[in-house]
């Protein structure tokens, strides 16, 4: 695709990235045409021969085709941008600021979190601290105390038990 993808940082920590995407109007129209041809072969509309439905006359259908074309175009663009910028996403992208009427370019922003770039400097010579592990008996005693502290005693009054016959 010949889409223009612009990348900019969203957060000073470097963990959240925004990908600003602009898809030319003619490319969106080609995708809508392809989807319309695909559905025209399958759909049966009264009064029309198979594959001859005039989808341009239906604004509701045109809107659905445009939204589906947008979702189908997002994934390849995202994968290409991730590869070109060498990003490592942690979350699924969130679609924000979607703009684009018929005949205008489609503009939107994909926002997601990435693994930050870390540079470890001068780690040689630094000391590590060993944290002692608790034994199984100490842990079970501690868990028992916590369980007793948070227990609630609720009286059961007039409980009817059903027995299977």
Distance between the termini: 70 Å
Radius of gyration: 29 Å
Query: Any idea what the shape is?
Result: flat
Question: Helical element count?
Answer: 3
Instruction: Give the helix level as a range of percent.
Output: 25-40%
**Order of strands, widest sheet:** 1-2-4-3
pLDDT average, as an integer?
A: 78
The CATH topology assignment of the domain at 4-113 is: Alpha-Beta Plaits
| H/E element sequence | EEHHEEH
CATH class of the domain at 4-113: Alpha Beta
Q: Give the structural class.
A: alpha+beta
Beta-strand content bin: 15-25%
* Main beta sheet strand tally, sense and closure: 4 strands, antiparallel
CATH H-level superfamily of the domain at 4-113? Trigger factor ribosome-binding domain
* DSSP E strands, number: 4
What CATH architecture label of the domain at 4-113 applies? 2-Layer Sandwich
Low-confidence stretches: none
Keywords:
alpha+beta; 165 residues; 3 helices; Alpha-Beta Plaits; four-stranded antiparallel sheet
What would you note in describing this structure?
The protein is α+β, with helices and mostly antiparallel strands and 165 residues long. It has a domain at 4-113: Trigger factor ribosome-binding domain (Alpha-Beta Plaits, 2-Layer Sandwich). Helices cover 36% and strands 17% of the residues. It has a four-stranded antiparallel beta sheet. The N and C termini lie far apart (70 Å).
Summarize the structure.
The protein is an alpha+beta fold and 165 residues long. The protein is 36% helix and 17% strand. Strands 1-2-4-3 form a 4-stranded antiparallel β-sheet.
